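Re: How this chain folds, sequence and tokenised backbone to follow
How to read it: Take the token row as a discrete description of the fold.
Start of record: The labelled sequence and token lines come straight after this line.
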Amino acid sequence: MRIGDRIAVMREGRIVQIGTAEEILTDPANDYVARFVADVDRTRVLTASSVMEKPLVTVLASTGPRTALRTMREHQTSAAFVIGRDRRLVGRVRATVIADAVQENAQSLDGLIDLEEPEPVAPDTPVADLFVRCAESDLPVPVADGDGRLLGVIPRVTLLAALGAINSVVDEERKPVPAKKGSGVDGE
């Protein structure tokens, strides 16, 4: 799965599914393919781009503190990513810091943006390299292209869900089938 650009899964001499490793892992064509890839280490095949989501809350660097705070309140979040007009990731702001700045009548986000965090990951970063980053950050991990433009984010829950999605198909097949009434099972 890691060395093929395009992969064909066959059964009894017929092609069941053709696609990239990510496509086959994340969207198996049927139960046969799901079982076939059930034991594949998804953390070595899936990448940041395959599990990222659109960022829910971004604030333009040119935005004032009041607008930034209003945006965060509307989305019920305590922080937001700050981007430039060209979508380049500048940093992040926290609602508590912004609220204090509003109280002090600040007119810009200058000096309020945390420029250190978060360090973005590249779209081709293997999922295996994202676990520590997701665990250490209270914000989703940003995904940016080579020019620093924000492409998406990876919340912890999304990372975990991506790993569990296909396993749930296989787990469903492994569940025991409940006995029918009157079948003589369980003392009936």
Q: What stands out?
A: Residues 166-171, 173-188 have pLDDT under 50 and may be disordered. Residues 156-174 form the longest helix (19 residues).
